[in-house]
Request: fold
Amino acid sequence: MPSAASQFNTDATRMVADLGHRQMVQLSLSGYQKARTGNANRFQDWESARSRAAAIKDEAILHLDRYLEQFEEKLVARGAKVFWANDAVEARAYILDLARAKQARAIVKSKTMVSEEIHLNEALEKAGFQVVESDLGEFIVQLRHEPPYHIVFPAMHLTRGQISDLFQQKLGAAPTSDPEALTMTARKALRQAYLAADMGITGANFAVAETGMISITENEGNARLTSALPKTHVVLLGIEKILPRLADLSLFLPMLATAGTGQQLTCYNSLVGGPRSLEEIDGPEEMHVVLLDNGRTRLLADAEQRDSLRCIRCGACLNVCPIFRNVGGHAYGTTYQGPIGSVITPHLRGLQSWQHLSQASSLCGACTETCPVKIDLHHHLLQNRRNGVAEKGSPFQQIGFKAFAFVVNRPRLFGFAVQAMKCFAPLQRLFDATPADPVWPWTKSRVLPSFARKSFRDLWKQRTT
Amino acid sequence: MNTRDSILARVREALRGSTGHSARHGEPQGDLSSHSIPEEELLRRSVAEADTAESEVHATDGSIGVRRVLPKVPDDFAGQVALFAERCDSLKTEFLPCADDAAVSAQLKLLSDREGWESVAFPASSEIGALLANLSIAKLEVSRSTVKTDLEKVSAGITGCDALIAQTGSVLLTAISGGGRALSVLPGHHVVIASASQLVSDLPAAFELLERKYAPNFPSFMTFITGPSRTGDIERVLVLGAHGPRKLTVVLIGGEGGGKVIGEK
Reply:
């Protein structure tokens, strides 16, 4: 199996050449950009809102232990069960055991990136459970046996034609080019799934410590149905989802909607704080909340990049990223794509295998500028590069940089080297941008600048008069 | 050590390593001297920094501070109703202000005829039943014994709510005011009956209301509904009625401070 880095190079190269795909992505995101800007402008002060959101998240992160304990205590008091999972294996095992204990035949799921992170569907299906993704985009990519393309818009890369073909093939639907008809096909298919399911699995956008509630943001209503109808409701979330107070949502709900989809408020923002209570007429009999670490405490220990835990998974950094817009979501090979994925994946899955994503950046800073919780994304990409080399640079990097340091610390040698390069340059021109070019890895996609006739040092010497 | 304790231990260890300062300013991690400072002191410093680091921001100044950044809302009732109506319009929510109960009954009859309802569901033993007296279609009173497949078949679900929010055009309802979790999401059309006194200005006011009304015994389910169910997952084209109701109607009873509150016991 090729390394993640070489796989990325192969996939990215292929996707960049696919003009149809690039056009599709640009078109999809153009409406978002407009709506987002419009809604951010409705805020009296979007910039202060960002600072405020960052400060609230910092407060949560810097007291994570206490807030997690409070969150658990409140939830348990209301009859929910809380399970703490160190890693993906433990989280999967808990949910599998629960599904077996409940003799769940059918399981319905609403969108949760954490379940992608721990590969929950594969595990459940392998154990013989039927799992249906209920978010329309997720439903589509599940039918295609594909991972989500984007953390917010899972099927953004597909045309209506492709989706129609898929529904014809898998659901026996009539061909159509009408997105509404396609949506209704999925609605019909999924209605049965909600009614039949004995277990519903959702994620959570926020976890309110003060009141012990999870908050789910969605547009379709699938998470509401998933958390209302089945007898058992399972919530899977990362430990960084904590917010200190219930009232903090009055800021975070509209900010997530604005940054995520360009809406003022997403259609449904639901708070769930336990199974149905005695005076309530419906709702699940049991609620299980799985709190997942899976590398997040490693990220927490890195004071320099700890602010990445503020992330509310709005996807805004993906939408503005020139790399994402050209290579697309699947090329990353990660659960979390785009700048935030490039920053956190090395912490979650190992620096050496995933630092290449931090190289795939122009460091333009658009991600940092758009982030609603002010994560210093592009600097973290630089830090990952530094950490990667410091931890274990390639022989080329180690020898190369030592040689470079040796030369630049010796003025005479440096002057000689510059002259030598100048002599060498015309030779290089003969092979420019061909595989015979000694600097081919550079010139195959870039233009090698030519040497100035006079170096800075020459000019400096002549400056006196 | 169980998994809970091991995660909490790792969290504490991670936080002990350094203060929040370096997290924000990119200073090298692992200020060794900090190990000699008691944990409590370290955390307090971290909070102080977190609270003052970003210009004048204070994370805990409550609703006053949040209101300075959120979208502006008129102070007066008429302005708030107008804003709510405007938000409904852009969200494709149908908004029907009515003077009194008789007007509401008449509106519901019109709605039923227009939409061709065959059946409606509403919370058992609520005042909604009386408002539906002149509808001669099947009526399902939702209670603990209601079967979800029956509820799925009804044409419309009619509920009360806890509040309407002018700022966002949202309906706030809970498992109590909404007649459970399913009634407001399973039928294809959701009709909300609200009194004018339930209109609040903005999101901070809505959360204040929830705290005042329920804390510490919140219903197990509370939701902010902002327009009918929708999706843009296919080529980012807006389609209404993805999984929840295709239609949302908000009926508002009475003028400023008036109107009967539905769903309160």
User: Anything to note?
Assistant: The radius of gyration of chain A is 26 Å. Residues 411-462 of chain A form one domain.
